[in-house]
Amino acid sequence: MSLSVTLTINHVPRTIDLDDPRVTLLDLLRERLNLTGTKKGCDRGQCGACTILLDGRRVNACLALAISHDGAEVLTIEGLAQGDTLHPVQAAFIAHDALQCGFCTPGQIMSAVGLIGEGQAGTDPERVREGMSGNLCRCAAYRGITEAVVEATQAMTTQQEAA
Amino acid sequence: MNRFDYVRPRTVAEAVAAGAEPGSAFLAAGTNLLDLMKIGVARPARLVDLNHLPGLSSIEALPDGGLRIGAQIRNADLAHHAQVVRRFPAVAEALLSGASAQLRNAATVGGNLLQRTRCSYFQDTASACNKRAPGSGCDARGGDNRLHAVLGWSESCIATNPSDFCVALAAFDAVVEIEGPAGRREIPLRDFHRLPGSTPDRETDLAPGELIVALRLPGEAAGFAPHSRYVKLRERTSYAFAVVSAAAGLRIEDGRIAAARLALGGVAAKPWRATAAEAALVGAAPGADAFRAAAGLALAEAKPSGDNAFKIELARRIAVRALILAAAGTPARLPALPASPFAPIPGGLHG
């Protein structure tokens, strides 16, 4: 079997030759495609900095072998905004100062987009906190993060109802 | 990570054949396996990828009212499946108390049954570990062992099984369906994991090449749905492994316990089904006295394997708490923090 993988990354189909099956989705994004918005924190599934959407579901890119996800659709922080229009979660993170150093922020935002899509937490801050517990923030901006996710959930619900 | 060959079987038979070759490991989500490969604890020569196999990703209703769950079903999908939530709520609660949303979106049912211990000496290749390197010794004995086993451990190994899911599965008599070089067979989940004895490297009943294809939850277990809970004590509020945990189910008729299910997690190398405690509860009035007596029986054989005597009392209390919460009734919706021992107890009982 030739080691090539076809992925739709941020809406663009890409076929990538791999010289080694050990490449994770995280390393593929960062090292091969220069999509460095997805961060490498612990590289062991403990911090959530590498969170991406894989076929619409939030996962840790560090614990996914690229070769195993042939045919999948990947969305990273770079693919979230529509041109100059920020995604509601991005806008809410700015409005609520939901970060300090910003290292965990792409993972937080992708995780929040996944959480809102799952529809389990709604706007209950306790459920949002639990739903976001796979994303650590060493600056402890958790209060702003929770507020931002709640506000973005409300904004996206209003948008959907208007549509 | 070591170099490995990557193979992508198209059928279960191909997967079993590839898996039976020496040095093979099955790759499901990889949330545990890739982690262990990165730190050099797992060094498979060949990864047999299960992610492109047909037929392992459905949940079917069974004639007895139970469910058959394909091994490649993801934890999150199982936890939110309407029939699981309604008929096996403690299984859903256990699943949602484990790991993070990202990991639950990836991790599979089959993989969860094969989750390796979080013993830090197992994970550190510079340490002696009979599980990782048979015959090398056990640095956990006499080491930092406050979270290690209090039941079923041996001088060879004092590690615990980290799964939450398996605790609920053990309580409710799940059955594991296996496909292997010698054909198909099944085994109760309770008998699937082994105690360490002198061979802690043999963690399950699986032979080389044998593949978990499905898990069955029996319809009989759904009778406990109105009174089923999972409770888990963690060292932080969320996203942590259990220090100790308990799955409990009660069938209450005319104010008396007609049947009980109780299993403990975080205490042994396998999920610990407490059958003596269950038997003692039958006929009793549901209440703190009966639950304390049952929890005492569940931990009767427990002994510290190091600086962990506190876990025996903690496990008793978590078992009592799980039984009290189960008696109070399964909530219509799982709480924001599933399995939390800090939730208020309905009716004001105290464990």
Automatic annotation (TrEMBL), chain A:
Domain 2Fe-2S ferredoxin-type: 3-80
One Gene Ontology term of the molecular function aspect: metal ion binding
Organism: Falsiroseomonas algicola
Protein name per Swiss-Prot or TrEMBL: (2Fe-2S)-binding protein
TM helices/strands, residue ranges: none
Matching SUPFAM superfamilies: 2Fe-2S ferredoxin-like (SSF54292), CO dehydrogenase ISP C-domain like (SSF47741)
Sorted UniProt keywords: 2Fe-2S, Iron, Iron-sulfur, Metal-binding, Oxidoreductase
InterPro entries according to UniProt: 2Fe-2S-bd, 2Fe-2S-bd_dom_sf, 2Fe-2S_ferredoxin-like_sf, 2Fe-2S_ferredoxin-type, 2Fe2S_fd_BS, Aldehyde_Oxdr_Iron-Sulfur, Beta-grasp_dom_sf
TrEMBL record, chain B:
SUPFAM superfamilies: CO dehydrogenase flavoprotein C-terminal domain-like (SSF55447), FAD-binding/transporter-associated domain-like (SSF56176)
InterPro entries reported for this sequence: CO_DH_flav_C, CO_DH_flav_C_dom_sf, Diverse_Substr_Oxidored, FAD-bd_PCMH, FAD-bd_PCMH-like_sf, FAD-bd_PCMH_sub1, FAD-bd_PCMH_sub2, Mopterin_DH_FAD-bd
GO molecular function: FAD binding; oxidoreductase activity
Keyword Chloroplast set for record: no
Residues in FAD-binding PCMH-type domain copies: 1-222
Listed Gene3D superfamilies: 3.30.465.10, CO dehydrogenase flavoprotein, C-terminal domain (3.30.390.50), Uridine Diphospho-n-acetylenolpyruvylglucosamine Reductase, domain 2 (3.30.43.10)
TM ranges: none
Statement: the UniProt record of this protein carries the keyword Phosphoprotein: no
Alphabetical UniProt keywords: FAD, Flavoprotein
PANTHER family named in the record: XANTHINE DEHYDROGENASE FAD-BINDING SUBUNIT XDHB-RELATED, XANTHINE DEHYDROGENASE SUBUNIT C-RELATED
Protein name stated in the entry: Xanthine dehydrogenase family protein subunit M
